[in-house]
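Researcher: Quick test of sequence recovery. Tokens follow.
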């Protein structure tokens, strides 16, 4: 067995691991599929950070890959990025009937990926858009020992998810959200909590300073006017941190997304959510 394992490692070290690899396995009665991008510079002997990127409702991993542009960042920063597919385009965000347990699926997925790719288990991160952002918050709540940091774009937490949130340790969290989001409103709606409430929740869970600092001057502009406010909660347990990027006038969108019409015609701020997310999460590792 040791000889076979050595041969596999040697083979991987001689092969270019770079590719968009579509893979799947059966879980909970469903075939769960995902796309994997391994950077060109990957080497089997070197452990790399892993970023899981979860798509929005009705979409899939392919769409999220094209929208976010994380593959280019993975090449530039030498990390593995994976785009899972939800069952029928959905994720279990604890809002209503679901097809399968997505938190349990992610646990199995992490084990599956770690057995096949050179993953640094101390530097595993999650992010997502809309429902995928909701799921990222759930992962921070329920798998805090597996994720070094998470980020959410236009996704908050349902009442059920927030009530059940009991992380075993502090988790750095970034939230990117537009004030004019009509799908997941900034101020909350029905069973979706407001952005301010979830940030207060995480500040409490991580034992951070309750009053954030506003980082000034604003970093991003639209037609020459400040478009984004950056809030920072620090002094958290175990070096954790919270950041909120509040996009004034922003809608339900992935800022800087390659396929977003507003970005293509220059009608949104120059904020690039993917770059901001990587800049944030990559600073953290599990203790």
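Model:
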């Amino acid at each position: 067995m040791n000889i076979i394992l050595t041969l596999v490692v040697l083979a991987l070290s001689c092969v270019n691991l770079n590719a968009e690899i579509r893979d799947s396995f059966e879980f909970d009665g469903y075939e769960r599929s995902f796309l994997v991008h391994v950077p060109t510079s990957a080497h089997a002997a070197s452990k790399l950070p892993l970023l899981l990127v979860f798509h929005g409702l009705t979409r899939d991993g392919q769409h999220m890959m094209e929208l976010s542009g994380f593959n280019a960042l993975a090449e530039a920063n030498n990390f593995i990025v994976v785009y899972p597919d939800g069952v029928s385009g959905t994720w279990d965000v604890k809002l209503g009937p679901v097809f399968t347990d997505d938190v349990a699926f992610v646990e199995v997925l992490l084990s599956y990926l770690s057995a096949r790719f050179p993953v640094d288990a101390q530097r595993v991160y999650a992010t997502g858009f809309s429902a995928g952002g909701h799921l990222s918050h759930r992962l921070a709540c329920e798998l805090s020992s597996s994720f070094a940091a998470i980020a959410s774009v236009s996704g908050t937490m349902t009442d059920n998810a927030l009530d059940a949130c009991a992380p075993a340790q502090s988790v750095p969290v970034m939230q990117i959200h537009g004030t004019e989001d009509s799908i997941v409103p900034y101020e909350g709606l029905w069973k979706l909590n407001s952005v301010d409430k979830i940030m207060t929740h995480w500040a409490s869970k991580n034992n951070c300073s309750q009053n954030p600092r506003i980082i000034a001057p604003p970093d991003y502009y639209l037609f020459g006017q400040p478009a984004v406010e950056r809030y920072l909660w620090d002094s958290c347990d175990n070096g954790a941190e919270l950041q909120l990027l509040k996009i004034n006038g922003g809608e339900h969108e992935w800022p800087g997304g390659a396929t977003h019409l507003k970005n293509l015609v220059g009608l949104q701020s120059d904020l690039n959510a993917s770059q901001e997310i990587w800049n944030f999460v990559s600073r953290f590792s599990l203790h």
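The longest strand covers residues 119-129.
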